[in-house]
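Q: My labmate handed me this sequence with no annotations at all. I'd like to see what the chain might look like in three dimensions before we decide whether it's worth expressing. Could you predict it?
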Amino acid sequence: QVQLVESGGGLVQPGGSLRLSCAASRSIFSFDSVGWYRQGPGKQRELVATLSSGGSTNYVDSVKGRFAVSRDNAKNTLYLQMDNLKPEDTAVYYCNAARGWGSYRQDYWGQGTQVTVSS
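A: Here is what I predict for the chain of 119 residues:
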Protein backbone atom coordinates (compact mmCIF):
# COMPACT_ATOMS: atom_id res chain seq x y z
CA GLN A 1 0.00 0.00 0.00
CA VAL A 2 1.35 3.41 -0.98
CA GLN A 3 0.94 6.28 1.46
CA LEU A 4 1.41 9.93 0.58
CA VAL A 5 1.30 12.52 3.36
CA GLU A 6 1.18 16.23 2.52
CA SER A 7 2.14 19.11 4.77
CA GLY A 8 2.97 22.79 4.54
CA GLY A 9 -0.36 24.35 3.67
CA GLY A 10 -1.77 27.37 5.42
CA LEU A 11 -2.89 30.97 5.14
CA VAL A 12 -0.65 33.40 3.29
CA GLN A 13 -1.03 36.93 1.97
CA PRO A 14 -0.96 37.66 -1.76
CA GLY A 15 2.64 37.79 -2.96
CA GLY A 16 3.77 35.42 -0.24
CA SER A 17 5.35 31.98 -0.45
CA LEU A 18 4.70 28.48 0.82
CA ARG A 19 6.45 25.17 0.37
CA LEU A 20 4.36 22.01 0.31
CA SER A 21 5.89 18.65 1.13
CA CYS A 22 4.71 15.15 0.29
CA ALA A 23 6.31 12.25 2.12
CA ALA A 24 5.97 8.92 0.29
CA SER A 25 6.05 5.50 1.92
CA ARG A 26 8.39 4.20 -0.78
CA SER A 27 10.99 5.51 -3.20
CA ILE A 28 9.76 8.23 -5.51
CA PHE A 29 11.75 6.55 -8.28
CA SER A 30 9.38 3.58 -8.05
CA PHE A 31 6.72 5.75 -9.74
CA ASP A 32 6.59 6.78 -13.36
CA SER A 33 5.34 10.23 -12.43
CA VAL A 34 4.77 12.29 -9.31
CA GLY A 35 3.17 15.67 -8.98
CA TRP A 36 0.68 18.07 -7.48
CA TYR A 37 -2.96 18.72 -8.26
CA ARG A 38 -5.37 21.22 -6.72
CA GLN A 39 -9.08 21.72 -6.35
CA GLY A 40 -10.40 25.19 -5.72
CA PRO A 41 -13.85 26.06 -4.33
CA GLY A 42 -16.49 25.00 -6.84
CA LYS A 43 -13.87 23.84 -9.33
CA GLN A 44 -12.69 20.55 -10.71
CA ARG A 45 -9.36 19.09 -9.67
CA GLU A 46 -6.61 20.32 -11.97
CA LEU A 47 -3.00 19.42 -12.59
CA VAL A 48 -0.52 21.92 -11.15
CA ALA A 49 2.89 20.35 -11.74
CA THR A 50 4.37 16.96 -12.54
CA LEU A 51 7.85 15.48 -12.34
CA SER A 52 8.74 12.35 -14.25
CA SER A 53 11.19 9.71 -13.09
CA GLY A 54 13.56 11.08 -15.73
CA GLY A 55 13.38 14.56 -14.27
CA SER A 56 11.09 16.25 -16.79
CA THR A 57 8.70 18.82 -15.36
CA ASN A 58 5.35 20.09 -16.55
CA TYR A 59 3.33 23.01 -15.18
CA VAL A 60 -0.11 24.43 -15.78
CA ASP A 61 0.24 27.80 -17.50
CA SER A 62 -1.17 29.77 -14.56
CA VAL A 63 1.72 28.79 -12.25
CA LYS A 64 4.67 28.85 -14.67
CA GLY A 65 7.45 31.03 -13.31
CA ARG A 66 5.94 31.04 -9.82
CA PHE A 67 5.85 27.38 -8.74
CA ALA A 68 8.62 24.78 -8.80
CA VAL A 69 8.34 21.03 -8.22
CA SER A 70 11.31 19.10 -6.89
CA ARG A 71 12.18 15.94 -4.99
CA ASP A 72 14.57 14.72 -2.33
CA ASN A 73 15.31 11.12 -3.20
CA ALA A 74 16.98 10.34 0.11
CA LYS A 75 13.87 11.45 2.01
CA ASN A 76 11.32 10.04 -0.47
CA THR A 77 9.78 13.49 -0.45
CA LEU A 78 8.24 15.63 -3.16
CA TYR A 79 8.05 19.42 -2.82
CA LEU A 80 6.13 22.26 -4.37
CA GLN A 81 7.68 25.68 -3.87
CA MET A 82 5.03 28.32 -4.43
CA ASP A 83 6.09 31.96 -4.79
CA ASN A 84 4.17 35.14 -5.59
CA LEU A 85 0.95 33.48 -4.53
CA LYS A 86 -2.34 34.87 -5.77
CA PRO A 87 -5.89 34.58 -4.37
CA GLU A 88 -6.77 32.31 -7.31
CA ASP A 89 -4.20 29.81 -6.03
CA THR A 90 -6.50 29.11 -3.07
CA ALA A 91 -7.31 25.41 -3.16
CA VAL A 92 -6.77 22.04 -1.56
CA TYR A 93 -3.49 20.73 -2.93
CA TYR A 94 -3.06 17.00 -3.45
CA CYS A 95 0.09 14.98 -3.91
CA ASN A 96 -0.10 12.38 -6.67
CA ALA A 97 2.05 9.40 -7.61
CA ALA A 98 1.37 7.24 -10.64
CA ARG A 99 2.53 4.00 -12.16
CA GLY A 100 1.88 3.10 -15.76
CA TRP A 101 0.35 5.16 -18.53
CA GLY A 102 -2.98 5.54 -20.29
CA SER A 103 -5.50 2.88 -19.42
CA TYR A 104 -2.87 1.07 -17.33
CA ARG A 105 -2.22 4.07 -15.13
CA GLN A 106 -2.64 3.55 -11.39
CA ASP A 107 -2.88 6.69 -9.25
CA TYR A 108 -2.17 7.21 -5.59
CA TRP A 109 -3.30 10.32 -3.70
CA GLY A 110 -2.54 12.08 -0.48
CA GLN A 111 -5.23 13.47 1.80
CA GLY A 112 -4.74 17.05 0.65
CA THR A 113 -3.53 20.23 2.32
CA GLN A 114 -5.38 23.55 2.28
CA VAL A 115 -3.71 26.63 0.85
CA THR A 116 -5.52 29.93 1.34
CA VAL A 117 -4.21 33.14 -0.21
CA SER A 118 -5.95 36.15 1.28
CA SER A 119 -5.21 39.54 2.77
